[in-house]
Write a structure and sequence with these properties.
This protein is α/β, with parallel strands linked by helices and about 300 residues long. The chain has a single domain, classed as Ribokinase (UDP-N-acetylmuramoyl-L-alanine:D-glutamate ligase, 3-Layer(aba) Sandwich), CATH 3.40.1190. Helix content is about 35%, strand content about 25%. It contains nine helices and 15 strands. The strands form three sheets. Strands 5-2-10-11-12-13-14-15 form an eight-stranded mixed β-sheet, sandwiched between helices. Helix 8 runs antiparallel to helix 9. The longest helix has 17 residues. The protein starts with a strand and ends in a 10-residue tail after the last helix.
Length: about 300
């Protein structure tokens, strides 16, 4: 049986994509030695929705989870912070995805267990019955494209609905080498980026995927359509509104980095929040850096404002 709650009021921003339960040692010890573990929610699109809700936007997260304790835990954790999860589907006999962090002396390794998960089975019918009447932006990422063919079909359906209803599509490239190699992912992610209205990409992943050495070359590759944001780690971020236009660069904040996971999603949320408010390019980028700096100070995907 598939459990499908009735949608609530149409959100201003709809974030669509996979989230999983994160298992991490309470102390920074390797998985094979740690004795105590914590469970958290990890997911690009749900993290964007959490930060947007915190900033006062009516944000919804749409996905599929297992009709199991981990799926229910995830829905409760996201909804607790004001994100509308009413349209998330809970699938019976299909598990919620799980991933583990393995802290090491130099870096953290991540191990994913998502094969056959509920989220990997998302398809265009996930959009059936949604109320789009107040939605201005739909945010998606390249992670969804790497999960399965049916998930790529869902992205195509989202783009089609957005065009029909004059909504903006926000696309974070979010290439995950563990999901699919650059040679396979590069052409698919480029095509999705070119069709979007707002594109977020890291300079390092753009180089890995497409061989583009700087923001200007990424913009040339994208063409005239997307509003492009190229993030260059601790250096800063550049927005190019269209190929050939003058770029706007804002340096990143100087912060002590605890972990980089979640910072890109926090940046996207800050940027989109100010885009919705009509703020200029520099203000959008600054807001992105503000939230990214907070995320960099934590091991959690989402760190609530204190």
């Amino acid at each position: 049986m598939t459990v499908t709650p009735s949608p609530a009021e149409s959100p201003e921003v709809l974030c669509v994509g996979e989230s999983m339960i994160l298992v991490t040692p309470v102390e920074p010890a390797p998985l094979e030695l740690a004795e105590h573990f914590a469970l958290h929610v990890g997911g690009a699109e749900s993290t964007v929705a959490l930060y947007l809700a915190e900033r006062g936007h009516r944000a919804a997260w749409l996905s599929q989870v297992g009709d199991d304790p981990l799926g229910r835990r995830m829905l409760a954790a996201v909804a607790r912070h004001g994100v509308d999860t009413s349209a998330v589907r809970a699938l019976a006999d299909t598990p919620t995805g799980v991933y583990f962090k393995d802290p090491g002396p130099k870096d953290t390794q991540v191990y994913y267990y998502r094969g056959g998960s509920a989220a990997s089975r998302m398809s265009p019918d996930l959009l059936d019955g949604l109320d789009w009447s107040a939605t201005r932006v739909v945010h998606v990422s390249g992670i969804t494209a790497g999960l399965s063919a049916s998930c790529r079909g869902l992205l195509d359906a989202i783009y089609a609905v957005a065009r029909e209803r004059d909504m903006l599509v926000s696309f974070d490239v979010n290439h995950r080498p563990g999901l699919w190699p650059a040679a396979e992912a590069g052409p698919v992610l480029l095509e999705l980026a070119r069709r979007a209205d707002v594109v977020f990409v890291g300079q390092d992943e753009a180089q890995r995927l497409w061989g583009t050495p700087d923001a200007s070359s990424v913009s040339t590759l994208m063409g005239a359509r997307p509003r492009l944001v190229v993030k260059d780690g601790a250096v800063g971020a550049t927005e190019i509104a269209a190929a050939g236009t003058e770029p706007v660069f804002v340096p990143a904040h100087a912060v002590e980095v605890v972990e980089v996971v979640g910072a890109g999603d926090a940046f996207a949320a800050g940027y989109l929040s100010e885009l919705l408010r009509g703020t200029d390019a520099a203000g959008r980028l600054r807001a992105g850096h503000d939230l990214a700096a907070r995320a960099l100070s934590s091991t959690h995907d989402y760190l609530p404002e204190t």
